[in-house]
Inverse folding.
């Protein structure tokens, strides 16, 4: 039900976590997206600064993720990305990620559902794509392998 290979890969560079404290929904934090790259057979470009990932860390330790950012393709298309997902794992694994340690992504669950929006004809195919991504958290970045739902 999904493409056998990623339709593209994302490497997003991140700012430090801005902790907003405990809200009625959980521990709220915001992580600004500073830039990055997108690479794939049908899409290549850069992530523009100015996006962010708004997160709520639930009482069970699960991070509820909502990232919005813009890709500018090498051909000049601007693509809005809306990505919602979850990241969770054993407490010691999540603690290692929080300390900025490299952790094998097979040791935790990091998945997102993605939608795209663009006015550029060359990238308009993305307007009709639902995608799923498998993520990996790095000390100052996130990597996503993005698969099309067929």
């Amino acid at each position: 039900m999904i493409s056998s290979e990623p339709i593209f890969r994302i490497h997003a560079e991140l700012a430090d976590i801005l902790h907003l404290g405990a809200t009625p929904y959980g521990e709220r934090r915001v992580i600004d997206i500073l830039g990055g790259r997108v690479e794939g057979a049908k899409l290549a470009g850069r992530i523009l600064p100015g996006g962010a990932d708004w997160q709520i860390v639930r009482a069970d330790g699960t991070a509820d993720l909502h990232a919005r950012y813009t890709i500018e393709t090498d051909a000049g298309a601007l693509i809005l990305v809306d990505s919602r997902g979850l990241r969770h794992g054993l407490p010691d694994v999540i603690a290692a990620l929080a300390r900025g340690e490299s952790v094998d992504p097979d040791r935790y669950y990091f998945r997102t559902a993605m939608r795209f929006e663009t006015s550029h004809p060359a990238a308009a195919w993305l307007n009709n794509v639902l995608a799923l991504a498998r993520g990996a958290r790095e000390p100052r970045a996130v990597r996503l392998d993005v698969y099309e739902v067929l």
Observations:
- Strands lie at 8-23, 26-39, 45-47, 51-57, 63-73, 78-89, 108-118, 131-138, 141-148.
- The two ends are 5 Å apart (CA to CA).
